[in-house]
Amino acid sequence: MTKLTAAITAVGGYVPETRLTNADLEKMVETNDEWIKSRTGISERRILKEPGKASSDMAVPAIQEILRKKNLDPKDIDCIICATSTPDMVFPATANLIGHKIGATNAWGFDLAAACSGFLFALSTGAMYIESGRFKKIIVVGVDKMSAIVDYTDRATCIIFGDGAGAVLLEPSTNGFGVHDSILKSDGSGGEFLHMKAGGSLRPATAETVAAREHYAFQEGKSVFKFAVKGMADVSAELLERNQLTGNDIAWLVPHQANLRIIDATADRMGLSKDKVMINIQKYGNTTAATLPLCLWDWENQLKKGDKLVLAAFGGGFTWGATLVSWAY
Ligand code: UT7
Description:
Elements: E1 5-14, E2 18-21, H1 22-26, H2 33-40, E3 44-47, H3 55-70, E4 79-83, H4 94-102, E5 108-112, H5 118-131, E6 138-145, H6 155-158, E7 163-173, E8 178-186, E9 194-196, H7 207-211, E10 217-219, H8 221-242, E11 252-255, H9 260-270, H10 281-284, H11 291-299, E12 308-315, E13 319-326
Parallel strand pairs: 4-5, 4-6, 11-12
Antiparallel strand pairs: 1-7, 2-3, 6-7, 8-13, 9-10, 12-13
Helix pairs in contact: 3-4, 8-9
The protein binds oxa(dethia)-CoA.
């Protein structure tokens, strides 16, 4: 039997119109453009401002772009995997709401919560469904409306995050294109450094949890940074070694966009020059589960069939990993 691999056959993306610049943040908290740029590489982020709009409203246009590009009927989609930490509601799954909004009436779906590594974990999961031969068209979407959970009085976190969505279509390939290998990791002992204290079953919402600002993302930046620099670089280097590859074999590093210094450390460790690293953190900030597909979206026109890509991420959980992909078109 011919071996099936899961090829990425289309990419779509969406970022909201509203820009939140470093100059805007200077008016909100004690910070400055120079500090933000030198410590993170970020100049501005996009914010979904319209009332009544949620993560699904960004995922929908990203997926519709794919449907348009591939001339696909939404009824042909088998499954939607939505990676997000900011679902529209605790339940039902945002994947179900997205499926309803786009008319994917034959698709099943679910949300996957792995913070900034969400897209990577969802991509691997979707790939296995394709490799099994059971499903033919899977949408993997990474979306986060971080502005819904960012405390805009906390200068250490509000400068990093932005909103956005990116999606890919996975289809079977008999030519070996697509997802080749993944190393995925998680370590719950890191939970204390990046989490939301209330709103879950541990601390359901009360007037007290709201007053204590516990429904916002909490991050101990320095600790996360320390683990992220090592975790993302280690796993990316391990992935190359395991596949007997060097930096020279890699066309593009597609890194999670949390901090330019973490990206640089990973590229250095892999022996990659800067021109082979996708970086759009300056214009979108950290969009959590959307960073990787938004990179693919921005670079789609520069990708060539057969290009080897390493996608790498590190985030809350802790969760981290790296995936080797051979570009299919
Ligand atoms: O995507 C999910 C995973 N998340 C990450 O990977 C994020 C990892 N962490 C980071 O990217 C960095 O830790 C931050 C960008 C969040 C912070 O940068 P840092 O270089 O680690 O800064 P720091 O927290 O060590 O703070 C250094 C100084 C402190 O002042 P003192 O104590 O030295 O006087 C902070 O109070 O910078 C101060 N500071 C700020 N100053 C101006 C913190 N935030 C700001 C700010 N503007 N926005």
